[in-house]
Amino acid sequence: MTTHIESNDHKLVAKSTDSSVGESLRVDGVTAAELESKGVHAWFGERMVLQDINLVMERTRVTALIGPSGCGKSTFLRILNRMHEIVPSASLAGQVELDGDDIYDPNQRAATVRRHIGMVFQRPNPFPAMTVRDNVLSGLRFNRIRSNRKDEIVEEALTKAGLWSEVRDRLGNLGGALSGGQQQRLCIARALAVKPAVLLMDEPCSALDPGSTLRIEQTVKEIADEVTVVIVTHNMQQALRVSDKTAFFLAQDGNPGYIVEAGPTSQIFENPVDPRTADYVNGRFG
Amino acid sequence: MTTELGPLTPDDVDDVLDDLSEEAPEPTARPLKRIKPREFKTSDIGVLALSGLSSFSIVWILFTQLTLLSGPLGFVVMWLPVFLGLYWFVNRQLFNRQVAVDRLIGSIVTVGAILMMMPLVLLTVFVFQRGLPQLTWHALFSTQQGVVYTPGSHNIGGVKHALIGTIEQVLIAAVIGVPAAVLTAIFINEVGGRFTKSVRTVVTAMSGTPAIVAGVFIYSLWVIPFGYSGFAGALALAIILLPTITRGTEEVLKVVHNDLREASIALAAPEWRTVWSVVLPTARSGLITSILLGIAVAIGETAPLIMTIFGSQVMNSNPFSQPQAALSLLAYKQIKLPIQSQIDLGYTSALVLFIMVFAVFILARLLSSSLSRKGGGKSKRSILSYTRWTPASAMERQDEGPETEFELEMEPLPPDSGERDQR
Q1: Can you tell me the ipTM of this complex?
Q2: How far is CA A190 from CA B97, B263, B268, in A?
């Protein structure tokens, strides 16, 4: 990424309409930030689904969350950008800090948090009634960010998502007309266009074919220079391929999920401390 | 792929993508005999036609030669079982029992569908038969004003005043009712909260309210203080179309997949933004269909108009004062009169009404399909199929055949809550 674009980025975000509280969080939105969860617990109704999650997701690194189904990985991910709270029965305890600011501070607006912490979902969900271009710009539109260099933003976001060369002539087509893998990369571009500090990815490849999966993994590696990535995956090879750090989640017999072990990816896969981690990464269960 | 640990380089990706694009095996050169097991072959059509013909002949002989029965209804009632029995028998000779039963059930269902269509066809034929001879430019563009009732005279005036009245009343009703209905549906489906249930109950109750009650309500509320007017009729019609459109819109909004709302929320969109920029555009074609269908229902209503617009034989293009005419009310009034030419005018009015409602239906269909096709060849499929998204359907998306336009309303997805609770 060139310095030219970075200087423009600053202008882009300075025009945004953050509340004064939001400014204390992060206004520049250009560089990646560190995300840390401290003692996070989560409930759906009275059922506790996550227990005491402490995890540092380091700046410009890819953190992979692995573990069997139902162990609370996705719930944890949704806690990280306050998507958890849109489920009526959901509640939580603990803190999540973005560069030291608690995103659950009562003065913090959920929308501000979500603008800085973007999300890509399991199933590609571009807005079907919008064109490719409008999809990329939707985050700006939703946040009433004005910019007179929208074309550049579109090109830059799509390039980062590895989609530009495929759709440059089809920016006016509807987002739903792309293939599944392209749709997912469009969703990544859409999330990147608002310059998030952190990008959360909830099993982004589970609905895609192997070729698209690989392209997305490549995209993840490339964007990690400028955004902190947290990726949930069921595919251990994928965690191995893309991540710098891995956290292994486990939930036993309907008990809440917890982190068994977290550390550098190479250590988790080659030299895990906990025998359950070794069993899981070697495919003996899960 | 290497088993070494380490970052994934672009070269690795290219290698793997190259490997993945290796050519598939050549298709075999042998000539293949292709079958379509579900196809209805020529011989099957022959069996069907001959069974129909034979059963017709048998019943004809029974009816006209051997007995003194008569009448088309009795003929059809006898023909159907004879046909079904014969069709089963012939198929039983050709195939095994299962196939014969399968064909029999299939033909029963088809016959049932045809029978269900008959009232509509008969109604259409009847209305056209009675109304079409009098449907001239004169009838469309003149009113009943100053007409002397002379039996046998063809100069009985036209339906212009009623046509104008209906158009004005329905437009006003739509202006009042459609925004209210759509907002109500958005409240029920998107906003939610403590009152969701009670609002939905009220809407359901409203859709069950007899139309005449809406008329009585407006009569006491508006007509007694302000007098008869087209506007009073529009108010009553708005009451009629509100629940219809609300329920239709609610169904359409339900079909918009929750993934899209979540995507919008994750992009920090405020709630109104999610509804306005994501949910409504996605549901656009179904939304327009349900609005137009609600309006079509209102066009045909008679009961709420009796006590609100009162009816008029002269032109009154001002909907806000003095009684007005409407097509449905005109038909109702004219057909009760004892003079043939007046009755004929009633049928003309009914025919014009019929054509209007039909035009709105056609418009609804055209709009819903052209809107969802806007922006490129594949997009029509993508909007509609997205609303019924499953991982499997996404993979098959490239191979899917054409979809029917109205499936959008017919197959609402189950709510997503169950899936989310499992997390």
Answers
A1: 0.84
A2: 59, 10, 12
